[in-house]
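Q: How would the structure tokens look for this protein?
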Amino acid sequence: MRYPWLRLAIFIVGCLFPAWWLYEAALNLLGPDPGKILMDRLGLGALTFLLVTLSMTPLQKLTGWPGWVVVRRQLGLWVFAYIVLHILAYLFFILGLDWGQLAVELRKRPYIIVGALGFLGLLALAATSNRYSQRRMGARWKKLHRLVYGVLGLGLLHFLWIVRSDLREWVIYALIGVVLMVLRVPVVSRVLPKIARRQGRAV
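A: Here is the predicted structure in token form.
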């Protein structure tokens, strides 16, 4: 296993935030509705991990260090883990496991459907995020994993729909997402290794 220290650090960080939030909830530090705060933080945590995951390839091209790409799959699985926890928090704390209320929620809050579509995309990515699937699917594997760009769009739309009255935080996430997408445009992507080589010569 390459870069075990980096993998361990990511694992610790991934576990640390939910553990800390649960600790705050146990001490009544999350206000009068801790369940909603937990749900919101898990959702933002998933979006943050998704943006970090998408930044790995540009960072590898810019720095030439292969460690960024090595941990990309692990980071992607943390996105899925946080989304699963986000959904469980919604079902438990918001719905109270009342499945009959779910239909009412879907009619009143269509952004839940948008979030569910994003989850289905992540489920497909997580289920095939292994070497066996990569070998079995061949070239189709890369095409499937381009779903991550659609998942990012759905995640940002889901977030926008929720916070439409206060867009400041959303704009930050959206701008980072736009930058990461621009860095994947072939013309821009080809420039990054050249910048890395120039930096190496300068050093």
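The radius of gyration is 19 Å.

The chain has eleven helices and no strands.

Upvote if useful.
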